[in-house]
Design goal:
With about 250 residues, this protein is α/β, with parallel strands linked by helices. It has a single domain, classed as 3-Layer(aba) Sandwich (Rossmann fold). It has helices at about 10-15, 70-75, 100-115, 130-140, 160, 175-180, 180-185, 205-215, 240-250, and strands at about 30-35, 40-45, 55-60, 80-85, 125-130, 145-150, 190-195, 220-225. An eight-stranded mixed β-sheet has the order 1-2-4-3-5-6-7-8, with helices on both faces. Helix 8 links the parallel strand 7 (about 190-195) and strand 8 (about 220-225). The longest helix has 17 residues, at about 100-115.
Length: about 250
């Protein structure tokens, strides 16, 4: 199927990859996962022997695995073991990023981590912004995931590129099945947390509400955090970002 979402014009407007020449912290483990014969994805785990829950994290656009090296302690306090995965072409990963690849690669990444016993028995998947696409893909298709978290996630990919001048007038049913978060989320059955900044100017809080309304989970929660936008969620007043996450992790 030929799709606008596979075009160079769409993906060049969507992705902003960065290289990563740095070395990981001494107490981290790096994994290189072959998603095709010629392309591998970098993932980094920060072991936490006290955690009972693995958090597989798909970061946002323009970010890379090592951006989270200094945030590990915050997640450890929440009682989870953090593993972050890049997109193709980001950080130490090879290849060129596309939205379809980000979605399809998520299954290969999770299968590899599980097969090699990198993850604990209880798994939560979290996606920030663009990372909401692989997160919803996994959580809507897999039954070996105990929790789903969307931070600053989008409902429809079209507005993401329209602001950069690429106009997409309509999409097919087949394209929506693959690329439309707000439709796919109806298939998610595990407990779901959706977090969004009230002042987010990149992805409207209305998209978070749409995802929440459409989410298929019986146990679901929507938190619109006051005083923060798209890239400063962790700075929400009163530590509300981490409080909400802690409550959700504890509930699993």
């Amino acid at each position: 199927m030929s799709s606008i979402f596979d075009s160079q014009a769409f993906n060049a407007n969507l992705f902003f990859p960065r290289d990563d020449p740095s070395f990981g912290p001494a107490n981290s483990d790096d994994y290189y996962i072959d998603v095709t014969k010629d392309i591998r994805i970098h993932a980094r785990q920060h072991p936490n022997s006290n955690a009972k829950l693995s958090l597989l994290f798909f970061h946002g656009n323009g970010e890379i695995v090592s951006d989270y090296d200094n945030l590990v302690d915050y997640f450890s306090i929440l009682g989870v073991e953090l593993t972050i995965a890049d997109f193709r072409g980001y950080g130490k990963s090879t290849g060129a990023p596309t939205l379809r690849a980000a979605i399809e690669d998520s299954h290969v990444i999770l299968d590899y981590l599980m097969a090699n016993k990198v993850l604990k028995n209880k798994i939560c998947v979290m996606g920030r912004s663009l990372g909401s696409a692989p997160t919803i893909e996994l959580c809507s298709k897999r039954f070996d995931i105990q929790g789903c978290i969307l931070e600053s996630g989008y409902a429809d990919p079209i507005p993401l590129v329209e602001r950069r001048g690429l106009i997409i007038k309509n999409t097919t049913r087949e394209e929506n099945v693959i690329f439309n978060n707000s439709q796919k989320i109806s298939a998610i059955k595990c407990p779901t947390l959706i977090m969004h900044g009230e002042d987010d100017c990149l992805i409207s809080p209305k998209e978070a509400k749409m995802n929440y309304d459409n989410a298929g989970a019986k146990v679901k929660r929507l938190e619109i955090l006051k005083g923060v936008g798209h890239n400063d969620m962790m700075m929400a007043p009163g530590g509300s970002y981490f409080k909400v996450l802690k409550e959700f992790f504890d509930s699993l």
